[in-house]
Amino acid sequence: MTIRARGRLAAVASGLVLALVAAGCTAADPGDDAGAVGAKAQENQDSVVLAGAEAGIGQIGGNPAEMALKASEAFFEKAPAVVVLGNDGGQEAAAGQARALGVPLLVAPGDAPDEATERQDFSAELERLGARTLIAHGTVPDSLAGNLEVVDGAAPDADLPDIDPVEGTTDSGFAVVVRSGEEAAEAAGPALVTAQAAGAELHTMASPDPRAAKNQKFFQEHADSELYAIGGGFGKAADFSALAATAAGGMQLPGGGQIVFPDRRMVALYGTPGTASLGLLGEQDVDGAIKLAKKYAAEYQPFSKEKVVPAFEIISTVAAASAGKDGKYSSYVPVERLESWVKAAEKAGVYVVLDLQPGRNDFLTQAKHYEKLLAYPNVGIAYDPEWRLKPGQRHMVQIGSVDAAELNRTNDWLAALTRKHHLPQKVVILHQFKLSMIRNRSALDTSHPELAMVLHADGNGTPGMKMETWKSLRRDLPDGIRMAWKNFIDEDSPTFTPKQTFDIDPKPWFVSYQ
Question: Among 145, 382, 405, 426, which residue has the fewest nearby CB atoms (within 10 Å)?
Answer without folding.
Answer: 405
